[in-house]
Amino acid sequence: MEQYPYSGMRSSIGQYVRLASRVNPVCMTAEIRAGGLKDFCAARGVTLTPVLMKIIADAAHEHPLMRALLARDRLLRRRVFIPDTVSIAVAIEKEHRGELFVMTPVVTEVDRKPLAAVGAELEDLAARPLDAMPDIRLRFALNRLPAFLQYAIMRCISRSAPLAERFFGAIGLSNVGVYGVSQLAPVWVNTVVFGVGGLYDKPVADNGRIVIAPVLHVSLSFNHCVIDGALAARMLAAVRRRIETAHYRTLP
Hints:
Helix content: 25-40%
Number of helices: 8
Structural class: alpha+beta
Radius of gyration: 19 Å
CATH architecture: 2-Layer Sandwich
Strand content: 25-35%
CATH class: Alpha Beta
CATH topology: Chloramphenicol Acetyltransferase
């Protein structure tokens, strides 16, 4: 039987998931008609992910709790903090010493940056080796600690709104559609996390007719300690509306 060491990086990822599981996320999914989205991405020279990030950031201003941070104030009282801008943590796979890891670097001020800038920042993050990722020295230091200390440090970070926004982002986004996955329910520490499946053609009903149309599945996992299902559904509907009405065409 083959065996290999359990790396510090894998251990810290496990402790992150352990922390995220404390928020007991609930998930809902929408099937979204996405006609014209592929052509728009091609015309603007970007992938789907930065377009979705801009759409989500716009919806987060309609629903401020989408970017909420559940943390502690100076007296250690629980408070809900709403950042002024929208920061989004994005899942990006990296290879290091023969192992594959998914990192979640944070793109800040997504709502204020033009689409091209968000796309370029994502391309840069995707192209970097693991040891050139933001704050990676801190991550390497964390990886050298025992698992219980990794968990304790991450929990302390989550209790500070400024640190949570810096290291975890206000909103999470994982896009696995390129692998042919239709749906997923990410378990992250954020109040709201979007899981994006593939964009593909399928038969749909259109005014009593069956037509072939591009469809995108988008899931929303949310922290019930901060928001309830009805509000989460309206958040997902806001993203859906912006896609189905091609609101993204107005993006700078």
